[in-house]
Design goal:
Blueprint: H1 19-30, H2 32-66, H3 71-74, E1 76-81, E2 87-91, E3 97-105, E4 109-113, E5 129-134, E6 142-146, H4 152-161, H5 163-166, E7 168-173, E8 178-186, E9 191-195, H6 200-205, E10 212-214, E11 218-222, E12 225-229, E13 233-236, E14 239-243, E15 247-256, H7 258-283, H8 295-299, H9 303-313, H10 322-336, E16 360-362, E17 372-374, H11 376-385, H12 387-395, H13 405-414, H14 417-436, H15 448-498
Antiparallel strand pairs: 1-15, 2-14, 3-11, 3-15, 4-8, 5-6, 5-9, 7-8, 9-10, 11-12, 13-14, 16-17
Helix pairs in contact: 1-15, 2-7, 2-14, 2-15, 10-14
Length: 501
């Protein structure tokens, strides 16, 4: 019997009974409780997987809300360069303004360049000796030993093997036959020095090679103030830039309010996708005609048939689910509550207090399940004419303690919509974790479904052990029956022979 192992048996003594077939049919009936349990276990695994998918959608929406909780994310600064050949903006800062930049010197590294070497990189040098490589710190110099078997490639390997200590790397251009020794860092503090007391380096790379080099700092001015830097990657008034060449350029940093529009649109998009997903899950009914397949049933089907069957069998796993419905209800409540606690304007009632005032409205069609839609013209007008109020609508904080039911309700009404929805989602995510845990789909943790799977596994093991015992009893009975039939057949043959048959 599939899934249950027992002793090897010899049957068919009488030739009149198909014992294996008879026992299998009997065990098929005995196995029904185990099959039922295994189907329940599979449904629980599918349900846990579907919950995790819902959990992921909640996390995505919370991430979108996080982009609207803080002023520094709500309002961004966009920086540009007037001449990218001279100065290139890497990342914008947070301070609007204009900076005039004049670059008079770029930072560079120390570099020793050899004469042309008339040997192949793999050709033996056939000399003995040594020279010393030194970087910015003389105490970290390294001696490079040359033997008759040394090659250009082996010398490079020795130099680069010590680069973490010296701060000097070597490169060999095979086309020109020239060796380059460069400091890893740039700026006036970088240095490359070759000490060649025995003339070994000169013997290999040329006697006229300059053996000492120092790097240079970048030199530039910002709005007339002179500045030096060890690198060409510098920060100017909060804007990260790369100095490209000598010349002049200006950095313009302006407030980019379009970012707020994009983030509000993203929030609405993620919210609507979640509403669709949760609503479909809670309204799709279970098709009782499709249950998880047993191992025997799968063996009789093709892979495509199994896939199509299981797709139907797992539909409706979360039908009418209270956790999903509670999540949707909590979010709708958070979005429909007016913003309170505004004290700065002379007339608080004139302040923006609802998302509908900036063009974010609940759809009127009940079939849309409370999804949101955007009046883009109204939203852009609010951003352009009442930006600070829009910002407060999303980012407002509350000093009310979260200690009593009354204070909890008051605090919620005083929180901006981004913080309010963020906290609501976080609370629901905690409930999801209690329901499904945070491990794998099969994890036997202390979550509700984890404990349920643990119970199923224990019961499954007990039933399988019980079935083995039942199967053994059936085989003993049929074996005894076969022996009795064999004995009866032998007696019948003897009587027949005595009667002359």
């Amino acid at each position: 019997m599939a899934g249950i192992s027992g002793p090897t048996r010899l049957t068919g003594f009488s030739g009149q009974l198909d014992t294996d077939s008879l026992v299998k049919k009997l065990m098929d009936t005995e196995r029904v409780p185990l099959n039922t349990l295994q189907k329940k276990k599979q449904l629980t695994l599918w349900q846990r997987e579907d919950y995790r998918s819902m959990n992921t959608s909640l996390l995505t929406l919370r991430k979108a809300m996080n982009e609207l909780r803080f002023e520094n994310k709500f309002e961004t600064v966009k920086s540009t360069s007037s001449n990218t050949a001279v100065l290139d903006v890497v990342s914008s800062g947070v301070n609007p303004g204009v900076s005039s930049v004049k670059i008079t010197q770029l930072a560079n590294s120390a570099s020793v360049i050899s004469e042309k070497v008339n040997k192949l990189p793999t050709e033996k040098l056939n000399i003995n000796g040594s020279f010393t490589i030194e970087g910015a710190d003389p105490a970290k110099s390294v001696e490079i030993t040359i033997t008759a078997d040394s090659t250009i490639d082996s010398v490079l390997k020795d130099i680069n093997g010590a680069s973490a200590k010296t701060g000097v790397k070597a490169n060999f251009d095979r086309a020109s036959g020239v060796l380059y020794l460069n400091s890893i860092t740039t700026g006036a503090g970088s240095k490359v020095k070759v000490t060649d007391a025995n003339g070994t380096f000169a013997n290999i790379f040329g006697a006229n090679t300059t053996l000492t080099s120092e790097g240079k700092d970048a030199a530039y001015s910002v709005n007339g103030t002179n500045i030096t830097a060890t690198s060409n990657s510098v920060n100017i008034n909060g804007v990260q830039v790369t100095l490209r060449s000598l010349g002049e350029a200006s950095i313009g940093a302006v407030v980019d309010r379009s970012a707020a529009v994009d983030k509000i649109k993203d929030f609405v998009k993620q919210y609507n996708e979640l509403v669709d997903k949760f609503s479909e899950a809670t309204t799709t009914k279970k098709n009782r005609g499709y249950q998880p397949l047993t191992t025997e049933e799968k063996e009789a089907m093709t892979e495509s048939q199994i896939t199509l069957w299981e797709k139907k069998a797992r539909q409706g796993d979360l039908y009418n689910d209270n956790l999903l419905k509670d999540t949707l209800s909590s979010m709708r409540s958070a979005l429909n509550m007016p913003l309170e606690g505004i004290t700065n304007p002379p007339d608080p009632k004139s302040q923006l207090r609802m998302l509908s005032q900036i063009g974010v409205n609940v759809m009127n069609d009940f079939r849309e399940n409370g999804k949101l839609e955007i009046d883009e013209k109204k939203l852009e007008e609010a951003i352009n004419t009442r930006f600070d109020e829009v910002k407060l609508l999303f980012t407002k904080s509350s000093d009310t303690p979260n200690d009593t039911p009354e204070n909890m309700k008051k605090r919620k009404s005083e929180l901006g919509f981004a913080d309010r929805l963020y906290e609501t989602i976080s609370a629901q995510l905690t409930k999801f974790t209690k329901k499904i845990g945070s491990g794998s789909i099969e994890a036997l943790d202390e979550s509700v479904l984890g404990k349920q799977l643990k119970d199923y596994n224990t019961r499954e093991t007990d039933l399988e052990r019980k079935l083995v015992d039942i199967e053994n009893r059936y085989y003993k009975k049929f074996t005894a029956m076969e022996k009795a039939l064999q004995k009866l057949n032998s007696q019948g043959s003897w009587i027949s022979s005595q009667l002359g048959g």
